[in-house]
Amino acid sequence: MTVATEHHAPERLRAAGLRVTVQRVAVIETLAARPHASAESVFSSLRDRLSGVALPTVHGILGDLTGAGIVRRVSLPDAASALYEVQDEFDNHHHLQCVECGRVEDVACAVGEAPCLHPSHDHGMRIIEASVTYRAICSDCERKK
């Protein structure tokens, strides 16, 4: 199964009320193949494939896709910039981040049903998401020490 088939980019764009463009589909495909990518790394992988694509265009597309719920913006401590991944409505996961090299991996939900974690007091709010980042040292960085 290819990335484009797997994430049904055109259908997801239409369902979100967004026009299907070559650039938007390419951004979704790039993130599906390389999750946890910055806007700059998405741009780097697209500039040779799509003539005329510019970094501000990629930022705008990521903003549109994030607003439509197709892409999730991931902000992690010590990351140089925001990272992005294709969002699956049935997926609820956390992140594992190496404090040395910055490598990021997905980690399944810690315990229980989404949103995984329940605060000691919700102050009358309905919890819709909980975010956990596990900070660690990856085995490659550990070997280098």
TrEMBL record:
Q: Which residues make up the binding site for Fe cation?
A: E113
This protein's record includes keyword Kinase: no
Q: Chief localization class?
A: cytoplasm
Task: Identify the CDD domains for this entry.
Answer: Fur_like
Q: Which GO terms describe its biological process?
A: negative regulation of DNA-templated transcription; regulation of secondary metabolite biosynthetic process
Tell me one GO molecular function of this protein.
Answer: DNA-binding transcription factor activity
This protein's GO cellular component annotations are: cytoplasm
The record's listing under InterPro entries reads: FUR (IPR002481), Fur_C (IPR043135), WH-like_DNA-bd_sf (IPR036388), WH_DNA-bd_sf (IPR036390)
Q: Domain of life of the organism in this record?
A: Bacteria
The listed locations are: Cytoplasm
* Binding-site list for Zn(2+): C98, C101, C138, C141
The free-text cofactor remark is: Binds 1 zinc ion per subunit.
Keywords linked to the UniProt accession: Cytoplasm, DNA-binding, Iron, Metal-binding, Repressor, Transcription, Transcription regulation, Zinc
Cofactors = Zn(2+); Mn(2+); Fe(2+)
Q: Which family does it belong to?
A: Belongs to the Fur family.
What is the protein's name according to its record? Transcriptional repressor
